[in-house]
Amino acid sequence: MDIVEILNRRYSTKEFDPNKKISQEDFNQIKSLLRLSPSSTNIQPWHFIIADSDAGKERITKGTQGFYQFNSEKILNASHVIVFCSRTSADDDYMQHLLDKEDKDGRYPNEEVKQMVYGARNIFADMHRYDFKDLQHWMEKQVYLNIGNLLLGVATLGIDALPMEGVDLKALDEEFELRQKGFTAVAVVALGYQGENDFNAKTPKSRLSEEEIITVLD
Amino acid sequence: MDIVEILNRRYSTKEFDPNKKISQEDFNQIKSLLRLSPSSTNIQPWHFIIADSDAGKERITKGTQGFYQFNSEKILNASHVIVFCSRTSADDDYMQHLLDKEDKDGRYPNEEVKQMVYGARNIFADMHRYDFKDLQHWMEKQVYLNIGNLLLGVATLGIDALPMEGVDLKALDEEFELRQKGFTAVAVVALGYQGENDFNAKTPKSRLSEEEIITVLD
User: Fold this and answer.
1) Contact, A34 vs A150, CB < 8 A?
2) Tens of pLDDT along B161-178?
3) What's the ipTM?
4) Within 10 Å of residue A42's Cβ, how many Cβ atoms?
5) What's the predicted TM-score (pTM) here?
6) Which domains does chain B have, with CATH numbers?
7) CB 3.0–4.6 Å: which of A113, A172, A218, B173 could bond B178 by disulfide?
């Protein structure tokens, strides 16, 4: 597998073939990609709402009414649609929960190391909470890192994707009662296989030149 | 290649072997991974400062003095170190520049489509600039998406990585005069090959359970 070739070939799919479904085996891989993504201090501040049924996708189109109508058909014709959600808090209950899970998974040789990691994660979260005052954006940045991981991951599986910010996130929060559960919608990614007439499949990719975006130091 | 297996095996490398260097061929792939990453509306709001020499890496350790000292050795022993930078503006000169590049790359069949994309990108940027008032975070979120793309990409090349938020970003802005150039440092990723005694290479990965983080709709 040539990863650059795969990345070069992937693109924002504008039309999905409604008859092509992602296999259960690939869907299991997709769930693992979401779960195994790295995040700063392993904080994993996310939840994923996934629709593969018509009824489920219909619910996600609550986020594509009015101004965002242009994205409705893509959601309905995709095989699977993921709503990426961010946590809205990182309170001590959650910090302890993460620590306990890491402990159970065998990451701590002793209590001292465990408490050191607990302290370090809190130092980073508090920096964003109190000093930079951007805790929410910091958590959402980890969700975007997960999206980057997912988009490349599914491309290696030969699955097409359309990442969408063009959705009414508040409407999705309401539809799935995300805020009551401590989450808020950040973006939506539709997955499936390109339709025959997707103009964007044939349009060349454009990126700024290497000379413009990269400086290699002497 | 099993992408989940690769993702499962990657980890935050805490000790690099200072004698192992990334090949020129792999470095070319890394540059392509950075360049080809997707971003919302293809806005590509980024620049990458890369050090592969001792002198270059020494300059990046200007960001790991004092409190962040624990990251200095990792930077110095890595093969290549990337400072991920975000743009600090998305003014009309830049928007026109993106549009011209896309036009040259063959994305526009006619002027009408070109102007439609120009308008759409501005609608999204203005939403963040004026309505959400989070243009800077929005651009930085795209940089995080790029980091997620890069971390999985290098893992497929068998390259170890350490993503670091624990750096003095202001010191890096000063060292590389980033602000004067319209950029600001966001995070650092060190790349190379693990050292023999990296405790984290042998520590099991921990992630929240699939049941906790994923909801599949009926």
Assistant:
1) yes
2) 999 999 999 999 999 999
3) 0.98
4) 19
5) 0.98
6) 3-89+140-213 (3.40.109.10)
7) B173
Q: What is the distance between the alpha carbons of residues A37 and A150, in angstroms, rounded to a whole number?
A: 8
Residue A14 has phi, psi (to 5 degrees) of -100, -15
Given a cut of 90, is residue B1 above it in pLDDT?
A: no
Q: Look at residue A64 and give its three-state secondary structure.
A: helix
Burial A182-208 (b: 16+ CB within 10 A, else e): bbbbbbbbbbbbbbeebeebebebbbb
Torsion of CA A93, A95, A101, A105, to 10 degrees: -160
Rounded Cα distance between A30 and A27, Å, is 5
Residue with tokens 């990451």, as numbered in its chain = A107
Torsion of CA B172, B177, B178, B181, to 10 degrees: 180
Q: Taking CA A186 as the corner, what is the angle to CA A47 and CA B150, rounded to the nearest 5 degrees? A: 85
Catalytic residue among A31, A101, A165, A181: A165
Both tokens assigned to B215: 């909801």
Q: Read off the tokens for A35.
A: 């779960």
Mean pLDDT of A129-153: 98
Q: Tokens for A84? A: 């990426």
Q: Is there a contact between B55 and A152 if contact means CB atoms under 8 Å apart?
A: no
pLDDT band at A1 (very low <50, low <70, confident <90, very high): confident
Chain A contact for B91 (CB, 8 A cutoff):
no
| Half-sphere exposure at residue A102, Cβ-oriented, CA atoms within 13 angstroms | 23
CA distance A207 to B1: 27
Is the Cβ–Cβ distance between B87 and B183 less than 8 Å? yes
The greatest distance separating any two alpha carbons of chain B, rounded to the nearest whole angstrom, comes to: 59
In B, residues 121-160, which contact A (CB 8 Å cutoff)? 124, 134, 137, 140-142, 144-153, 156-157
Contact B100, B115 (CB under 8 A): no
In A12-141, which ranges are E strands?
46-51, 80-87
The yes-or-no answer on residue A101 being catalytic is no
* Distance separating alpha carbons of residues A13 and A149, to the nearest angstrom: 17
What is the spatial distance between Cα B12 and Cα A162, in angstroms, rounded to a whole number? 29
CB contact under 8 A, A145 and B142: no
pLDDT in tens, B105-159: 999 999 999 999 999 999 999 999 999 999 999 999 999 999 999 999 999 999 9
